[in-house]
Amino acid sequence: MDGLIYLDNAATAWPKPQNVYDFAIDFYHKTGVNPGRSGFDMAIEAGNIIEDLRKRLTKFFGGDEDTPERLCYGYNATDALNLIIQGLLSEGDHVITTNVEHNSVIRPVNTMVRDGGVEATYVPFDSCGFIDPEAIRRAIKPNTKLVIVNHGSNVLGTVQPLREIGTVCKEKGVLYAADTSQTAGVVPINMKEMNLDVIAFTGHKSLMGFTGIGGLCVRKHLDIKQTRSGGTGVRSAHPYHLEEYPYRMEYGTPNMVGIASLWAGQDFLDQEGIENIHTRELQLARKLVDGLREIKGVEIYGCEKMDNHLSTITINVNGMEAGDVGIMLDVDHDIATRTGLHCAPLVHKQLGLVERHGGVRFSIGAFNTDADVEAAIRAMHEIAGNVK
Fold first, then answer.
1. Which of 85, 282, 341, 367 could bridge 358 with an S-S bond, Cβ 3.0-4.6 Å?
2. How confident is the model over 207-234, as pLDDT tens digits?
3. Rounded to an integer, what distance in angstroms lies between the CA atom of residue 210 and that of residue 203?
4. What does the pLDDT look like over 311-321, one tens digit per residue?
5. Are 311 and 277 in contact (CB under 8 A)?
6. The CATH classification of domain 18-271, taken from the options 3.40.640.10, 3.40.50.620, 3.30.830.10, 3.40.50.1580
7. Of 3.90.10.10, 3.90.1150.10, 3.90.1170.50, 3.40.190.120, which CATH number belongs to 5-16+273-385?
8. Which of 187, 188, 186 has its CA nearest to residue 206?
């Protein structure tokens, strides 16, 4: 991996901060036991970090700090979104979502439409890649149960106006959920201020944790129907899955090394400041966009305005397949990007890119440098310049 320029942070942040590796491995080496299932010291210590991180993340997301047990762990945001969508929607309900969604929302929603008698409306984004809150208002019907919005697009990098959409949902008495996969750890999130009822998060992106850990944060006025059952390690004689939080949304043995990585990730974010991280990433993103705009034949999507934006840039080169551009960046220039539809087919469909097999995505992370961006611009000059 020496010499690799990694620009695929929207998929997974890499590398992680050194303190994340050190703390998680040390914790798991010393305390890698099943938490809360026994009374010996290591099990108690393992249980303590679980509960302390619930409090820490609840505060981080602006949830209800008096009910930290409603911060529930899962595998990732996809896992959490399935719990939310299946647990809140029933036959006859209407759900509103958007064309900027990832398949982690699209597929569960479509499954509920096909198999569960649910009705869905997909709201398109505007010419700059944003969802108009008034378009959400216009889509609300008497049977609308839920609005679910991707906070930050993993294709366009646009950050949606969650607060304004939340105002509409509150006025209309509609439940409101957000997928924070791309924004948690880089854009401030306050559930109470944004009128969010529940969010899904994943740990392996800007929260700086490992893969296989994520979850949901549920406001104290909301109960989500259980769609799974299993072990909890407590009240084992009870014949049904426990209804109280966090057990209501948690099943089986937790990912302890993942939880430890999230704890250390919070330490890193506290030390660096998410606003500072975002500012540095966006400076590099603007530099990349400015450089790409100077290259003949390069098309850039969703970057007309870089305000309310992530450091995620998707492009194409006229006359070339996105996959071929990605291969050239990798093989000839040691630059890792992501090509294709990025598990967000409705974005590419609205942009008219499905026939072109999507686009080439550059996503800048906390450890990228000016030199990385300059190398990417030089590489794109060479690649686009060779098109006949």
1. 341
2. 999 999 999 999 999 999 999 888 877 8
3. 6
4. 999 999 999 99
5. no
6. 3.40.640.10
7. 3.90.1150.10
8. 186
